C-alpha cells in the first residue's frame, strides 16, 4: 500500500530554518528564480517550501539532505531528485495566509490550502469551476456557511488538479464532483482550517501515515463524473 505524509508549517518558522542553511543548497535554476522575486514575503515562501521539501524527503528516505534536490516535471509539478536521479517520492506544495502545506507520497499526490484574504462572491466563483451539484451545495449553505463550503470544495478541486498534473482547468473541473466517502474508499481528505480549508488528494489506496501540524479529523471524499454536460455552462 502506498503511503503519504502531510506537513503544515508556519512560513515564517520554515523560512527561518531555510535561511539558517545559507543558500548553497539551492540549484542554479532555483537561484535564478529566487533572484527574480522582489517581494520579501514571496522570497520567504519560496525558500521555506524548497528547503522543507528537501529536509522532509531526506527524513523519509533516511538520506543526507545534501543529496536531495528539487526540479520540475514537464507539466510543472515539483520533482524530487536524489544524486541527480528522480526520487521514489512524489511532492506537492501549497501556501496561503502565512502557512505552508507540503505533501509527500510514494504515489501521485496533490495538496492545497486556501485562507481567504477578503470576502468575495463565492457563488459566482463556484459557477466558474464547480459542477452543478457542487454549485447547489454552495447556494444551499446560506450566508453563514457559504465561504466554508466553497473553500472545502475549491481546495479539493485544486488538490485533484495538482495530483494529476492537469491543474485547475475550469471546463474539466466542472465535469467532476466531489462526493463524501468512507475512509476505506476515499481519494481525498479535507480539513477546515482558520477561515478556509486544506485538502489532500491521493492515489486510490494510499494511506496517510502522518499529518504533522494538521488540526482535527478530516472529511473523506471521492471524485465522480458530474451529471449533465459541462458544455452547457460555458
From TrEMBL:
Superkingdom of the organism of origin: Bacteria
GO terms classed as biological process: lysine biosynthetic process via aminoadipic acid
Domain 4'-phosphopantetheinyl transferase: 108-169
Matches recorded under Pfam families: ACPS
GO molecular function: holo-[acyl-carrier-protein] synthase activity; magnesium ion binding
Entry annotated with the keyword Ribonucleoprotein: no
Cellular component GO terms, alphabetical: cytosol
Gene3D superfamilies (alphabetical): 4'-phosphopantetheinyl transferase domain (3.90.470.20)
Keyword annotations of the record: Transferase
Similarity remark: Belongs to the P-Pant transferase superfamily. Gsp/Sfp/HetI/AcpT family.
Protein name as annotated: 4'-phosphopantetheinyl transferase superfamily protein
Organism name: Thermomonas fusca
Lineage: Bacteria, Pseudomonadati, Pseudomonadota, Gammaproteobacteria, Lysobacterales
